[in-house]
Amino acid sequence: MAVSVLCTLAAGCAKPTDTAVKMLVGTYTDGNDSKGVYLYDFDTENLEWKLLDTAAAGNPSFIIPSPDRNFAYAVSEYSDGRQGVQSFALTEDRIDLIDFRGGTGADPCNIAAVGGNIITSDYSGGVVSVFPLTGDGGIDTLACQFVPGQEPASHIHCSVVSPDSAYVFITDLGADNIYRATLPADGRGVPYDFCTAFSFDREMHPGPRHLTFSRDGRFAYLISELGDCVTAFEYSNGILKHLSTEIAYEGDGHGSADIHVSPDGRYVYTSHRLKEDGIAIFRRNPDSGLLVHSGYVRTGRHPRNFAITPDGRLLLCACRDDNRIEIYSIEPGSGALTYTGKSIEVPAPVCIQLY
Fold first, then answer.
1. Which long-range contacts (CB under 8 A, 24 or more apart) does 35-43 make?
2. Which long-range contacts (CB under 8 A, 24 or more apart) does 249-253 make?
3. Alpha-carbon span 147 to 127, nearest angstrom
4. Which helix (H) or strand (E) holds 62?
5. Residue 338 in contact with residue 314, Cβ under 8 Å?
6. With contact defined as beta carbons under 8 Å apart, do 321 and 273 qualify?
């Protein structure tokens, strides 16, 4: 078992405290030394971390813990026949691969737990794949596959359950649509009644990528990869009502990636790659849901994904091409980010989940 600590500390880390969180890290494994999935203890107060365990897995580029934290689920992002979904047993200090199931479309890049199912968003395949869970961490055979887009250029990028747990919203980067599917009221079965919830101007081709909701469930925010912009929506009863679209940064990287609302709801952050890589900062009006761009911080290379600690004090940024997770402090009064000088070394980190 390996241990990682701050370079200024002696070997060994402090025992977990009430400021400790668990951290799952998904990586790309091809062409590097990554072991697959990494499980850490991370102390948000002292900025100390401990590598607890690793699980061998192929390209687990997006991973989530189950709601009860007994399991974790990850995609296996390939397009050569190795693609699929993976499940892991999760304890306080161990993570173990327990199942793999093929059958997704090509390049599954996002996974969501929906009732008794997991749903993958398959980028190159342009489909949504639904797999029932067996209850003991196992994954059953593919239940159904939806092709929500009408164009061969569809690229499904994420699936997000609505705050009222009535719908799942699905972004199509290729066709510039957000789709909506209805979830069974009893939590069983598969989503149904796929429809288009919102369509963007195809000539502008913003490329909707990741969608997230405010904690109160009244608003949704979308980062568009190709347009480098953030769109704010008002949300109610399955309806997304467009409020505004703001340019997130002017680096013209057209590789905008991730989006998160701070735990206190006062700020929205977005990540941007391929040119002038960094994190954009927006002030958020909790009443109107509108955003005001307030800053931009350069990061390491290729910040595809990031996470904010539950206490809202830190932002952890996965810099894939620098093989590290950079740790930034969040200034409470402005939401500004400051690099702490601390980073967690891990090969090709892609996804960070804190719990």
1. 36/60, 36/97, 37/63, 37/72, 37/74, 37/88, 37/95, 38/346, 39/90, 39/93, 39/94, 39/95, 40/4, 40/344, 41/13, 41/16, 42/309, 42/316, 42/354, 43/13, 43/14, 43/16, 43/17, 43/19
2. 249/276, 249/278, 249/280, 249/296, 251/275, 251/276, 251/278, 252/228, 253/228, 253/277
3. 5
4. none
5. no
6. no
Dihedral of alpha carbons 75, 127, 256, 269, sign: negative
CB atoms under 10 Å from CB of 102, counted, come to 13
pLDDT class of 19 with cuts at 50, 70, 90: confident
- Whole-model pTM: value is 0.93
At 139, list the tokens: 């994954």
Percent helix, strand, coil in the chain, to 5, is 0, 50, 45
Q: pLDDT tens for residues 209-267?
A: 999 999 999 999 999 999 999 999 999 999 999 999 999 999 999 999 999 999 999 99
Specify the amino acid at residue 170.
Answer: I
144 burial class (0-12, 13-18, 19+ CB within 10 angstroms)?
A: middle
Cβ-based burial of 46 (10 A; exposed 0-12, middle 13-18, buried ≥19): middle
Residue type (1 letter), 196: T
The set of residues, in sequence order, having a beta carbon less than 8 Å from that of 199 and lying 6+ positions away, is 176, 177, 178
